[in-house]
Structures are given as structure tokens and as C-alpha cells.
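#lab-general

N.A. 3:47 PM
ok so I finally got the sequence cleaned up, no stray characters, all 105 residues accounted for. can someone with queue access submit it? mine expired

B.Y. 3:52 PM
send it over

N.A. 3:53 PM
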Amino acid sequence: MDTKNNIMDIKVHAVHFKADQKLIDFVEDKVGKLQVFFDHIVSGEVFLRLEQSTDKDNKVAEVKLLMPGREVFAKKQCKSFEEAADLAVEAIRKQVDKHKAKTVN
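B.Y. 4:20 PM
back already:
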């Protein structure tokens, strides 16, 4: 049974590079787990890009989630796409928690 995309539609875009399937699966899995916290998420979109920089922290992950009446966004830049995606998803989770608390009250 495929549980990671049963409700939420997740799109992963690699900007100006070809992402391998392992990275795409990692990102989809991370974003998909957000449904555990709030099951009203409609869709998710992730942009992975390399910043034109001499700095080693040049991998950027931008995560956008669409929920009824709300859109949340986080952008993180790190040494790896996995780390950037992990931090961006954590920032989104906090925003989702705040949104959930407001909708319950």
C-alpha cells in the first residue's frame, strides 16, 4: 500500500539540475509525513536548486503547502539537499501546528 501520496499531491522540481530518484523519494517522504500532523493538506510543492555561490551551503530547498484557506512556505539553504529539505519541512511543520491550533480554537 502506498501511503505517502494517498491524499496529498506532492510535486518535486529540480531547477537547473537532474535530481536522482533517491533524492526525490526522500523529499516526497519527508513532505508526505506532514499529513500525520494535519490531514487537511491539499498539495505540496518542493523546489530544489543550486545557488550560484562559492559557499558550500549552496543547496536550497523551498517547500510550499496548500491547505484550505492557507498557504505555508519555508526556504532553507544547507550543504545538502536532504538537510535543507529536512529543515524546511520542520519549519513547515511548526507553521502547520500553529494553523491547526487556530482552526481548532
